[in-house]
Design a protein that fits this description.
Elements (H helix, E strand, L loop, with lengths): L2 E6 L4 H12 L3 E7 L9 E5 L5 H11 L9 E8 L15 H29 E9 L12 H21 L3 E7 L6 H7 L9 H9 L6 H13 L6 E4 L12
Parallel strand pairs: 1-2, 1-4, 2-3, 4-5, 5-6, 6-7
Helix pairs in contact: 1-7, 2-3, 3-4
The protein binds NADP nicotinamide-adenine-dinucleotide phosphate.
């Protein structure tokens, strides 16, 4: 079946690995939403969008996308809300209010707007759909220094669970904790001071002990789980899901 993917944050880390894996699929079309879009290629359409600018997200949903008619109808469509930021990393009493607002916009509000757009427009571009929101274990337990990150990922988890029950069975919505991935975000976490993030040494140890997973491996697993229908509706953690052995290369 031909699959149309919408992906945010395709420039680096997990998003770049997802974009590369999707682009390699023969029956896939990719639409990316990123601050620095790559160039258009066959079956790839890149839109410039800063998710912190919610007016631009609104414009994209109501006019930029509507004016884009070059994409044929597909059997299935998948929205992957991958873009996210960990900033501000600081005790909540010190965290910049602007940075907290920015985190909420990028990690929760923009993904919710795109989810709503996707659900309301799906019939125009595909028969069935799924939404994969890239969440974090940090949304499921409190971590000192990550007030904004924990709060926004918890918000994304709840928005996903509400959408999952409202939109079933037409759209399967999953909020997926992807494990600890070797990306710029992890480098940024390791670079924070112990005063801002008391648990920083544990993240340095994860890196030196080789416990981080590559973005490529995580991307491949997410796409396999989705295409095999193995992502559950609601909350999920990639570490407790397995792909069907017969499908492994
Ligand atoms: N790495 C981990 O261990 C880990 C663990 C749990 C969950 N996650 C989640 O996994 C997802 C991907 O993380 P990652 O590790 O790949 O992070 P990353 O390497 O820091 O990449 C973040 C991506 O989000 C994009 N982004 C940030 N701000 C944006 C904005 N205002 N507008 C549009 N795009 C924006 C970035 O684009 P620019 O290049 O334009 O900045 C980049 O493509 C995130 O949601 C993160 O919370 C990661």
């Amino acid at each position: 079946m031909r699959v149309l993917y919408f992906l945010t944050g395709s420039t680096r880390g997990l998003g770049a690995a997802l974009a590369q894996a999707i682009a390699a699929g023969t029956d896939c079309t990719l639409v990316t939403l990123s601050r620095q879009p790559a160039c258009h290629a066959a079956r790839r359409h890149d839109f410039a969008l800063d998710l912190a600018d919610l007016d631009s997200v609104e414009r994209w949903c109501t006019s930029d996308w509507q004016g884009h008619t070059g994409i044929p109808r597909h059997g299935r469509a998948v929205l992957i809300n991958n873009a996210g930021i960990v900033d501000p990393v600081a005790p909540m009493i010190n965290a910049s209010r602007d940075a907290m607002r920015r985190a909420i916009a990028i990690n929760v509000t923009a993904p919710m707007m795109l989810m709503q757009w996707f659900a309301s427009q799906l019939a125009a571009f595909a028969d069935t759909g799924s939404i994969i929101n890239i969440s974090s274990g940090a949304g499921r337990r409190p971590i000192a220094g990550w007030g904004a990150y924990c709060t926004t990922k918890a918000g994304l988890d709840m928005a996903s669970q509400v959408a999952a029950i409202e939109w079933q069975p037409r759209i399967r919505v999953t909020s997926l904790a992807p494990g600890v991935i070797d990306t710029d975000m992890q480098a940024q976490i390791r670079a924070t001071s112990e005063a801002d993030f008391a648990d920083v040494q544990r993240f340095k140890d994860l890196k030196t002990s080789g416990a981080l997973v590559t973005a490529e491996a995580v991307a491949k697993r997410i796409l396999e789980l989705d295409s095999q229908g193995l992502l559950p509706a609601g909350l999920a953690d990639i570490r407790s899901l397995s792909v069907k052995p017969s499908e492994l290369p």
